[in-house]
Amino acid sequence: MExxxxxxxxxxxxxxxxNKLSLPIIASMFLIFANNIIDSIWVAGLGPQPLAALxxxxxxxxxxxxxxxxxxxxxxxxxxxxxxAENRASANNAAIHNLILSVIVSIFITIIFLAFMKPLLILxxxxxxxxxxxxxxxxxxxxxxxxxxxxxxxxxxxxxxxxKRATLPIALxxxxxxxxxxxxxxxxxxxxxxxxxxxxxxxxxSLLLMxxxxxxxxxxxxxxxxxxxxxxLTMYKDIxxxxxxxxxxxxxxxxxxxxxxxxxxxxxxxxxxxxYTAGWRIVNIGMLPAIGVGxxxxxxxxxxxxxxxxxxxxxxxxxxxxxxxxxxxxxxIILIAFANQIAVIFSYSESxxxxxxxxxxxxQLMSLFILYxxxxxxxxxxxxxxxxxxxxxxxxxxxxFILVLVFAYLLGFVFNMGEFGIYCGMxxxxxxxxxxxxxxxxxxxxxxxxxxxxx
Length: 455
Description:
Layout: H1 5-10, H2 14-44, H3 48-84, H4 88-123, H5 130-142, H6 144-159, H7 163-187, H8 192-217, H9 233-267, H10 270-306, H11 310-337, H12 339-344, H13 356-366, H14 373-385, H15 389-414, H16 418-454
């Protein structure tokens, strides 16, 4: 198979490949979350109610992001395995299947979200801020194709090791959002609708850039020439076998957020939801090093698995955890040390000043959650890389939805610890679940190595 520098990198030393892929991925993910943070900062100036409305929309928004990342992971996994097996023709065909699937899924999700947004928001307990939530959500969900397709197309770029093209459009989207937010919200006096338009237009422009590379410039390693396309239902299935479970993982996380919002509404009201919305977004940023390293592991693990180099697969899993854990410890210390300064960005206006001490307390406690993420994220992404998306989904569901939610409910309500108990339960459940996930990937890789030795 003819190789370029990107392919040589992705098929070479697993440690070097993870190092080279991780930093741009972390940077791009930081910019994705920066879009949400920027919205929160500017919307916070409108008062606690619009900020709380953003908190209710966020889980639904993250479902879309999750489907994009999930289908992208499925395409990444399949294409990487073909590249590892040195089958370029099938890799090209898989990339086109990935693109077609992204359009179909985008249309389907747009229809579903626009049709069921209002009853979902009411079910989530957002009646007190329903008008704000509907105003923001309708605009964002109408542009689902712009939000969902870039991470899917980016997954194909990552599979061929072209990390520049996978990350540059996301950076462009973030910059556009940064510029448009204050203009739309305050200068044009569009309020929360302005934040929604800024969030949607950035990714749309980045998607146009990706299409330019693929269909106009045509200088990607993978070919998207439909003349060579052979429709293969098995490829759609292989992408979805990883993509659907990976997408559902984000759905599980979003549903968890919905339940947490609901529990906080019961014990403390909308102010607690606003605090959780702001604080959890900062914690999510702190998770990015671990998630970025894990995402890089999908491509490297897929190549190793396709080439049947199972020892490299073990290197991928262990090295990913090591690098991510070191980074997570550093981030955790920074967030705890600068919690007061960080909280100011969400409480700079007179109407939101009451949130600052509450956000500080939240950050100083929940930053500890970041320390567990390297184990669960790395394990789940390696499973996705080898095509075992269902296992990753089961482990994520067990960790995030069952353990985290059960412990949060027990400490918050059964032991009557209220808001503090909910947060402590999330920490306890997440820690136990993440360690179980990592134990499972070690057992799976050991089984592969033994089978190869015996074979």
